[in-house]
Design goal:
Blueprint lengths: L26 E7 L5 E7 L4 H12 L14 E6 L5 E4 L6 H4 L5 E6 L7 H11 L3 H6 L3 H22 L3 H8 L22 E8 L5 E7 L4 H16 L9 E5 L5 E2 L10 H8 L5 E6 L16 H6 L7 H6 L2 E3 L6 E10 L11 E10 L2 E2 L4 E2 L3 E2 L6 E12 L8 E10 L8 E3 L7 E12 L10 E6 L1 E2 L27 E6 L7 E3 L3 H18 L2 H8 L3 H11 L9 H9 L1 H7 L4 H6 L6 H13 L5 H6 L8 H11 L4 H14 L9 H12 L1 H12 L8 H14 L1 H25 L4 H12 L2 H6 L3 E2 L7 E5 L5 E2 L7 E7 L7 E7 L4 H19 L11 E5 L2 E5 L4 E3 H9 L11 H9 L3 H25 L9 E4 L4 E3 L11 E2 L2 E2 L9 H7 L10 H19 L1 H9 L16 H7 L5 H17 L1 H14 L6
Parallel strand pairs: 1-5, 6-10, 11-24
Antiparallel strand pairs: 1-2, 3-4, 3-5, 6-7, 8-9, 8-10, 12-17, 12-23, 13-14, 13-15, 13-16, 13-18, 18-20, 19-20, 20-22, 21-23, 25-26, 26-28, 27-28, 28-29, 29-31, 30-31, 32-33, 33-34, 35-36
Helix pairs in contact: 3-23, 5-21, 5-23, 11-17, 20-22, 21-22, 21-23, 22-23, 24-25, 28-29, 30-32, 32-35
Length: 1080
């Protein structure tokens, strides 16, 4: 037991004593017995409340050993021996110490009974998220404990509110309908309505009866139900059925059309059916048949008390008592001591290794001052060395922003270059030497409580990933988390000085920063003459026009110094006149000057909300300031669930750019997920799929734990999905080991039919789309696919008797994260086009990564690859790829009437235009006849997106793909309907017009496209590791050109693709010859 001297003041009843002087505080010596075995004595005012004592106690406990073993303060209550000689648990923390009168002035801290963990629940969550919850406790980290407490309160609060909701609201949560923002008929489906009416089919549960209706698109679900029941009553002579007892369900899906005032046309399901020229099919069923979960999440009697408590991370007490000093009062330069490094894996036992350390201060990826280096020294044979060297930076402590990162790289001096990041060192002209980076680490300057870090610290380093393309030695966009694998990571030892002596140094609150900015502004105005003030407020139309031109520039546009100066001078005019300039205005801020940081903070507090497209930009890596990111999240609060789902992939990845566990973005995503199970489903899988990544396993694991605790019924469904995926992955692994195809297929069928397997993969929500549920697998329809990783082609019976079978592909061994990003961007492009009335029949099929190199892909039925079509219609030969009639002939085989064929050609023309533009803008590479497919209805689409942003494959040093996009003679032949006359037919001109229009629409939203990719930088995708990778998008979108110039530029690329189509055909012929992969 660790303890101080227990006070010796128990000879009289001091609780009965009156203070000697009414003006002096009545101070007593209190002894607290902590749950980690530490005894903490300290003086305290006898009149304060228990919650105030607890806050002071946790502040004091941070100075004692084993502080990290404590959970957050609200997890505990005090107990004492009262005046009746009984042990009393003090749950009411508003009571005062002088009223409680603990015996011997001793309080014991015990865990609050109401929140003692349910071991079974903890175990289930640990299995589900892939990380035992005991690992979080074992970290003994106060930030982790604080975050777990806050998120538990958040989850409890949302879950309690869900329990109080009515039936309709519970259905909206569990089976959320996709609803468009407005009831306006989208331009792309106006022509699909018949005189403003929708034609749909309705069925009844457990009945073969079906009715067809032609109803106004403004009809609401209750009105349709009433019409259905009236028709049923007239047809089947039924009586007494009340519309309020029924609801409408999408056929084959667990999605319900609910809303008394929402017209049918506003439901995305109806819009999707009309866009695809499919008749909507709805099922009328009783509300009692809807499987609404009873959300009996927990029974926590203390929840109201808990929500009134403050977490121990509050710095209110420190600020209130004056035990701190503001960081903005420190004019000393920033310094720290580099002690040494140990366990460096560099083969020092067998050779001489000379190493050095470089350190830099960064904010949002930008350097705050010149980086510093230690002297270079020899590593000991055990992989350790000592510097004991002080590094001094050319920046004052007060000018280091709150979200600054201190970045390190450990490098070796060598005679040879090793790896892509090597640098030539100019030291001795007689000998060529290189700097070869070995490992890196980052840390924050301030802790999660806004306190400047002091004392000793050990950072466990990371090695450089081989596929990172970034050229910089330091890695400021890397994680600030220490490597959790401490047994195999080099340990860097540092010591930070205590600038505050006996006071802690706190970064100012936003309120204090705004006050400081106001003071600076008043002082500045006092120095200016009246004429100067008038001149500052008088802005000409020419200057405003310059600002508007800057607003149209893309997010990556580098501002010139004069532009920065002008914009910063006119910052208040930007606020009033052009608020969308905020992101660029923030680029003008000198983040290494606390005065400008204060002014930027004051501006942010006044800034009007931005549209979603502009708010997303503020969440990429470049905008580190906490007030900026808080503002961005505030702008997102009004976004619809449908739009949030569209951008969820980026928002989940943006969590990696946060410095601390607790942040508004995490809270925002959790709240939305806990209020919409569909969002919760995809957020779960986005985070769960990366739990093997050490840099994010704690952050993502904690968020997943919070989600599971706040949505325990959904957790059960996710648990079934996880078990199903584990079983299928195991089957896939076993199948891969069998070389013979027939033996592998038989083995697959034998394993799947085993009872333990059948149980695990039956009655499961589809991870690809949770609105679909399957009953059991249809083994006779399943097969093994031919590619190297042997994906499983799986077919399941739909749980809805009226629903069609569910087809999907399980991939094990391929990284699907880049496919997910590309398909998401195709969905966004499709939405942008449709908003402009341009429906290009895109087919961004479902794709989800569920684990490291494991995931699922939606099967697009009735489709074939171009390669197989060419082989089928042109026979397998070197010239098959050149025969332009094969694709049209294939379409004729599946569309027998002239009307059907014309419709198929129209589908092909539109979809070909969409994919031509999309693949060109996104730089989708490795296009060949096996990853371009065509449906029997004519719809063309691309699959397999392993290379994007212009990372084209090379062979013998030459690029295999030398055209902007795929437009072969075969495609042109279909677009022209087989016409062979000279010159382009009218049909082809329409196709080109579609392409140009689609390109210009994307240019109008170029900022959004760039921002979404920027949010993914340095999140683990090899082809998106630095800002340089975004240059491809800037080049294709040519955002610096006028619209006329951009259209002319695109036409030149279009002509290039058309003229060089023979090169694509040649490439495909080569591919067809080398790989006969006709599926069977």
């Amino acid at each position: 037991m660790v303890h101080g001297n227990i006070p010796n003041a128990y000879k009289y009843n001091f609780w009965a004593e009156r203070p000697g002087d009414a003006h002096e505080p009545a101070v007593v010596e209190l002894t607290c017995l902590m749950p980690n075995g530490v005894v903490i004595p300290f003086e305290i005012n006898r009149n304060i409340t228990l919650d105030q004592i607890k806050e002071d106690l946790w502040d004091e406990a941070s100075k004692y050993p084993l502080h990290g073993t404590l959970k957050d303060a609200p997890s505990y209550v005090f107990s004492c021996i009262n005046s009746n000689a009984e042990i009393e648990e003090l749950r009411d923390e508003t009571r005062r110490l002088c009223d409680i009168k603990p015996f011997c002035s001793v309080l014991k801290v015990i865990e609050r009974e109401g929140i003692k963990s349910d071991r079974n629940l903890d175990s289930q969550i640990g299995v589900l998220i892939g990380k035992g919850l005991h690992e979080f406790a074992a970290l003994k980290n106060s930030e982790v404990n604080d975050f777990r407490w806050k998120m538990r309160l958040l989850g409890d609060d949302v879950a309690l509110n869900r329990q109080k909701r009515c039936w309709t609201e519970k259905v909206h949560y569990q089976f959320p309908s996709r609803i468009a923002p407005t009831s306006t008929v989208p331009k792309n489906i106006e022509s699909r309505l018949k005189d403003g009416n929708i034609v749909l089919v309705t069925k009844f549960e457990k009945s073969e009866v079906a009715f067809t209706f032609q109803i106004a698109h403004t009809t609401t679900p209750p009105e349709l139900i009433e019409a259905i029941l009236n028709k049923r009553a007239n047809t089947l002579k039924t009586r007494g059925e009340q519309p309020n007892d029924f609801t409408l369900k999408v056929c084959g899906q667990e999605e319900y059309l609910i809303g008394d005032k929402i017209p049918l046309i506003q439901f995305c399901y109806i819009q999707d059916c009309l866009a695809k020229d499919i008749m909507p099919t709805l099922v009328t069923l009783s509300k009692q048949s809807v499987p609404v979960d009873q959300d009996n999440a927990f029974d926590n009697p203390d929840v109201d008390t808990l929500q009134r408590t403050k977490p121990s991370s509050s710095t209110l007490t420190l600020r209130k008592k004056g035990k701190h000093i503001s960081a903005w009062k420190l004019e000393e330069p920033f310094v720290f001591n580099v002690n040494g490094i140990s366990r460096l894996n560099c083969d020092a036992a067998h050779r001489t290794v000379e190493i050095g350390l470089q350190a830099g201060l960064f904010h949002g990826g930008k350097s705050l001052c010149e980086s510093q280096k230690t002297k270079e020294i020899i590593v000991s044979s055990d992989g350790s060395c000592e510097w004991e060297e002080t590094l001094k930076f050319d920046i004052k402590v007060r000018d280091i922003p709150r979200m600054a990162r201190l970045c390190f790289v450990l490098y070796e001096i060598s005679k040879t270059a090793k790896g892509l990041k090597s640098r030539r060192l100019i030291r001795d002209s007689k000998q060529e030497l290189f700097i070869n980076p070995l490992c890196w680490a980052n840390t924050t300057i301030y802790d999660f409580k806004s306190q400047l870090k002091t004392g000793a610290m050990t950072l466990y380093t990371w090695t450089y990933a081989e596929d990172i393309q970034n050229d910089d030695l330091l890695h400021p966009l890397g994680t600030v988390v220490s490597n959790p694998h401490i047994d195999r990571a080099a340990a860097l030892m540092l010591t930070f000085p205590n600038y505050g002596k006996d006071q802690c140094v706190l970064y100012p609150t936003p309120e204090k920063m705004v006050e400081y900015a106001q003071t600076l502004r008043e002082q500045s105005n006092e120095r200016l003459t009246k004429d100067e003030l008038n001149q500052e407020s008088d802005v000409g139309s020419q200057q405003l026009e310059q600002l508007r031109l800057l607003a149209d520039r893309d997010p990556l546009h580098e501002l010139h110094e004069q532009e920065k100066k002008t914009m910063w001078t006119l910052r208040h005019h930007c606020l009033r006149e052009i608020p969308t300039l905020l992101a660029k205005l923030l680029q003008c801020v000198e983040w290494n000057d606390h005065r400008e940081v204060a002014e930027a903070t004051a501006l942010i507090q006044q800034w009007p909300k931005l549209p979603v497209e502009k708010a997303l930009e503020l969440l990429d890596y470049a905008y580190a300031d906490q007030n900026v990111r808080n503002f961005a999240v505030r702008c997102l609060r009004d976004v619809t669930d449908d739009d949030l789902s569209l951008y969820l992939l980026q928002l989940a990845q943006a969590l990696k750019h946060e410095n601390y566990l607790a942040c508004p973005l995490t809270e925002f995503l959790l709240k939305r997920a806990l209020n919409n199970q569909r969002i919760g489903h995809f957020l779960f899988w986005h985070l769960r799929s990366e739990m093997q990544v050490g840099a994010v396993s704690v952050r993502f694991g904690l968020i997943l734990e919070a989600y599971c605790r706040g949505s325990q019924q959904h957790m059960l469904s996710l648990f079934k999905q996880m078990k199903c995926l584990e079983k299928l992955r195991s089957v896939s692994q076993q199948v891969k080991q069998k070389k013979d195809r027939k033996t592998a297929l038989q083995g697959f069928q034998d394993i799947i039919l085993e009872p333990h397997c059948q149980e695990a993969i039956s009655d499961v929500l589809n991870p690809l789309d949770p609105s679909f549920r399957w009953n059991h697998i249809k083994i006779e329809k399943c097969r093994l696919m031919d590619s190297k990783m042997r994906p499983l082609w799986l077919v399941f019976e739909n749980s809805d008797p009226f629903g069609e079978d569910i087809y999907l592909i399980l991939k094990h061994g391929d990284d699907l994260r880049q496919d997910m990003l590309t398909l998401q961007m195709l969905r966004i492009m499709d939405k942008l086009w449709k908003k402009e009335g341009l429906d290009l029949r895109m087919n961004p099929y479902g794709c989800i990564s569920t684990e490291n190199r494991v995931g699922m892909i939606e099967v697009v039925l009735n489709a074939e690859t171009i390669a197989n079509i060419q082989k089928e219609k042109g026979t397998f030969s070197a010239t098959a790829a050149f025969r332009r009639g094969s694709l049209l002939a294939w379409l004729k085989d599946h569309n027998h009437t002239e009307a059907a064929l014309n419709k198929a050609i129209e589908e092909f023309t539109l979809s070909c235009a969409g994919y031509c533009v999309a693949t060109y803008v996104l730089g989708i590479a490795d296009r060949h006849s096996d990853n371009i497919m065509v449906k029997k209805t004519g719809q063309l689409f691309h699959v397999d997106f392993g290379h994007i942003l212009g990372h084209f494959k090379e062979k013998f040093g030459f690029r295999r793909e030398r055209v902007p996009f795929v437009l072969t003679n075969d495609f042109v032949h279909v677009i022209n309907k087989g016409q062979t006359k000279k010159g382009h037919a009218a049909e082809f001109q329409r196709f080109q017009n579609h392409c140009e229009q689609a390109f210009l629409v994307l240019r109008q939203h170029g900022g959004l496209i760039l921002s979404l990719f920027a949010m993914m930088i340095s999140t683990g995708l090899p082809e998106l590791s630095s800002e340089k990778d975004l240059n491809y998008l800037r080049d294709t979108l040519v955002l610096e050109m006028s619209e006329g110039e951009a259209q002319k530029h695109f036409r030149s690329k279009f002509d290039e693709a058309l003229c060089n189509s023979w090169k694509t055909s040649l490439n495909w012929a080569s591919h067809n010859m080398s790989k006969n992969n006709k599926t069977t």
